[in-house]
Each structure stands twice: as structure tokens, then as C-alpha cells.
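MODEL INPUT / OUTPUT PAIR
PAIR INDEX: 1
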Amino acid sequence: QVELVESGGGLVQPGGSLRLSCATTGVIKQFYTMNWYRQAPGKPRELVASLSDSGITHYTDAVKGRFTISTHNDEMTVYLQMNSLKPEDTAVYYCNAQSISFPDLRYWGPGTQVTVSS
């Protein structure tokens, strides 16, 4: 049974930082790609950052140089460090685990709200 639970969202001023956490159970590192998505009001859900089983990272252009995806040493928690936050980063952020062997098999967390506003 795979479960994902996000935490760390909140209200932050422009230019500030937040670190999102995704606690996982049932995820075996070599079988999944770990992703962070976000969805702003009235917009489709978009992929923000990915971390492959071999440690390769990918970021959407809008967050390159500002966001970092990583895992804890025990690889049971996935983080998204977000720096230099902008109002356009405001969204619900979702943790996602995608099976490498069966890409249509995806697991989602409930999401955590990030609001960037002065």
C-alpha cells in the first residue's frame, strides 16, 4: 500500500522560502520516479520537479535555480526546497509517485497549500 502525505505549506512573503515534505510509505526507491506537481486556481496541474530512481532531477523552466527536489538519507521522505518565492508560485502542491515499469500507475498525496503574498 503506497501512501503519500505532504506538509510544510503556508503563507510566505515574496522572496521568502519554504520547504515542503512528502512522507511516503510503501514506496521503494528503485521502482518509482518521485514528482512534485502544483495546481493554481483555474489552471491545470503542472509538473514542477522530478527525481528519478538514479538521482536525475528535472525542473520546469519557471522554477529552475529556485527549487530543489531531494530525498532524505532514508529515502522515505521527499523534499521540495523553494527559494525566492514569487506570487505566481501560489498553488496547491502535490507529491506524486509514478511507477517506472507501469507509468500509468500513479499515487498522489492530498496536497498542501502554498500562498506567496505580501
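PAIR INDEX: 2
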Amino acid sequence: VQLQASGGGLVQAGGSLRLSCAASGRTFSGYDVAWFRQAPGKEREFVATIRWSVGGTIYADSVKGRFTISRDNTKNTVDLQMNSLKPEDTAVYYCAAKFSLDTSYNYWGQGTQVTVSS
């Protein structure tokens, strides 16, 4: 499956952005989808995931209560709604997918830049 991330941009602290991860070549059916981010000089970190089998979601503690991951089956996208953004949320955000029975994410999008100004 090929992934395309979009929706990044520049926003002031306290603002909101909505990222979208679109799949081409097939649907997300049977796949867990996640968002990761990587800030300059830092390791890539997990942000959130939505699981195909039960539709459950998991969030990093740093974004819990502010970010919401959701799946839109009609548009074949997985979105990340980001509210109450902080400067420390600044990073390149990547969407990733794995077949639900796999242990690691092996499909990655190209990344979209999110910059939060103070």
C-alpha cells in the first residue's frame, strides 16, 4: 500500500491542524495505521495508532487529550486531528501502516511538516 500524508503547515501555539493519510493501491482494510513524528535532532517517536481489528486507539502520553486519530472509510484516509498545539509538537509527521498481524510498520508515507510558533 502506498501512503500519502498531507495537511501540515504553520500554526500558532494553541491552534489546530488536521493531518490526513491517504492510501492508494488498496484500502486500509486489515491494516493498523499510525502517525509518527520526528523533530530536528531527535529520534522518530510514536504519536498515535488506530487498530483495524478492534478500531481501538493508542496515544503517546505527550499528545493524549489533544490529538485524535480516526479512520474515514469513505475517503480511505486516516486522519490526525491536532488541537491545542504546542511548539514542542513541531516535527515532520509520518503516517505508517502494517498488516494487523505484523509486528512492525513496513509502509511509510513521505512526511508532512508541522511547525508550531510560540
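PAIR 2 NOTE: The chain has a mean pLDDT of 94.
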